[in-house]
Write a structure and sequence with these properties.
Two copies of one chain form a homodimer. By secondary structure, chain A is α/β, with parallel strands linked by helices. The first copy, chain A, contains 13 helices and twelve strands. In chain A, helix 4 packs antiparallel against helix 5 and helix 4 runs antiparallel to helix 9.
Amino acid sequence: MRKYIFFCLILCNAVLTKAEPATNEPLVEKQVFTAQQFELFNGTVLPEVTVGWESYGTLNKDKSNAILITHYFTGTSHAAGKYSHNDAAPGYWDAIIGPGKAIDTTKYFVISVDSLANINVYDEHVITTGPASINPATNKPWGLDFPVVTIRDFVNVQKAVLQRLGIASLHAVIGPSMGAMQALDWAAAYPDKVKRVISVIGAGESDAWTTALLEQWTLPIKLDANWQNGNYSRDNMPIDGLTASLMLITQQALTPEFFNQQGETLGYTPLEAAPLTRITSSHSIVKWLKQRATARAENMDANSLLYLARACQLFVAGHGTSLNKGLADVAAPSLFLPSASDLLLMPYLVDTPHQMLSESSKLLTLQGQFGHLEGVVNVQQHATAITTFLNNPVR
Amino acid sequence: MRKYIFFCLILCNAVLTKAEPATNEPLVEKQVFTAQQFELFNGTVLPEVTVGWESYGTLNKDKSNAILITHYFTGTSHAAGKYSHNDAAPGYWDAIIGPGKAIDTTKYFVISVDSLANINVYDEHVITTGPASINPATNKPWGLDFPVVTIRDFVNVQKAVLQRLGIASLHAVIGPSMGAMQALDWAAAYPDKVKRVISVIGAGESDAWTTALLEQWTLPIKLDANWQNGNYSRDNMPIDGLTASLMLITQQALTPEFFNQQGETLGYTPLEAAPLTRITSSHSIVKWLKQRATARAENMDANSLLYLARACQLFVAGHGTSLNKGLADVAAPSLFLPSASDLLLMPYLVDTPHQMLSESSKLLTLQGQFGHLEGVVNVQQHATAITTFLNNPVR
């Protein structure tokens, strides 16, 4: 069981759930959306946008039962279910998305879209347009010629996908972490289209602290000699830099409690013989962390990490001159679920938006030792609150 | 005043003090200690150890009034006073060390020693033996051939310096951060020589979390193409890697509150025009952080950072098989001063040693927005407690 939890946590593509796999549930199929001449928030135009999306449940006749799930930084649109009965684990929020679950797919049509510049470029189930995509003007990967994209652009791509499906408004937008940024920005940008917002381990904006912290993730990549200012080829990628970045992200997303439990499992002690003897040897906990980061790096692209970090750094809900102005038009009731032990997007980051939206805002704290990841692997501790919030009539 | 605080904080070689400079105080002089064939904790023998030391106040006749100050990771033996009346700032703990201050130099002989592998290799006032020193066997810098050194070795070098001066026992050992590790290890290793211990922003041992966190500091250096497995020359040093490492250290040593105040000063907003337009441009807060790290890197050596990180990773007070055993022989009363807002060595890290030493241990928490650095720049908030602790008779 413990091993299973680690797998879930570190690969971040599965959730801890006690439910038996429902083998009679329909399998998930990845769909593709394409648009031409897509105008971005900063004014540049992408000649083509192609992204993957998937859905669970059935869209009702008047197309009023759609719930959009927006994914986290290292996540994908695979929020629930399995692509094949042989999949090792279902989508990351399977504990709360499914028939009879908190987000009940017998009632709702749940949809999720791969972000622009999705980091999991080499995951066979991910379809994205980003710096690793081919630039039609050069027939080579965009690299750093890819334009800067924002959380608003992820929202606008999702909006285009929904329009194509004829969905004019959303019963709710719900997401963890970077997904929470998208959820809140939806409510700010398109108040008439969003009936409810749930921000899990989110933020109202990227403050100076968070922007600096996100920058730390990008530094190891840019130091890797293979990076070549973003002009690397598939067979010579800056894997060491990407792995170092993921080591940092993995640690910041967890807690001392979690690491020290893992240390116990490994038999960690400060005075381990190898690192005491050789400066080039590592402690057991370091080797463990590096192994996990190496495994995560396999399907990921380093440049895409830089673009996602930038999108998060530029985030302020509403994408205006201030958070206050950005939230002024929000009409949707909101539910904030920060994690008490979060060291990455600390709980204080939702205090301001929660207060600004006070009349229609509710805040419940996630408890546990998983830090930021509490919102990915253990969000089901507030399953009842989520269901109640979704059932509440609005306007 | 604000600028002065930033200077103090970021260069970490000065303290915030409201006292007027006492121009009639004697200037500090750096002294040199050398020993041959110095056996290290891991069994290897250094052919030569040369370190700098300095002192404030006068050693009494029976040599019983000595207080040892042990310095932090990026610090030096310059704990108080000035080398020249023109110095921009005095030593880092000048607010508590001096005539009539918490550590009263009219009563005590206060001494501090540059650590082995001190990071400030190119600071004219620092004398150290480390990976940047010349290996007599090759007549080239040691690089990674320098043996792994531990907190215990720093303690043993200090012990040798004191022996040379005829000092058999210490009225107290006091240090912040890595210095707190040395202070506690002194009490564990040489219980008959240490009368009192003050651990400021310290730890009982490097737990799995802390060891992983320290490893993060080393990763950017090892990614820098100039690093060359540690075989770099003075005119081709891995400055970019070192700077990235210092950006991480600087942020972890501070707090969101501090960064967000700094952001206000800079006019930081998430949607700054340059980073929205170009992926290669940075936010104001990132530029600020990088400038500060670049300035700090000037006198520093990258390999030395790797060795200091390793010394801290290997730390368990007493350097035995467990903290419990390590502290079993401690006879000295101890005073722990963790910082409530510390994100680097979190306050929980002294809970266990404080509880283990319960009968003779006192714990007071530093309050403020400076995080880990509270113990460097604002330790004087517990000046009275320090004085009282030093005045208490023991045994």
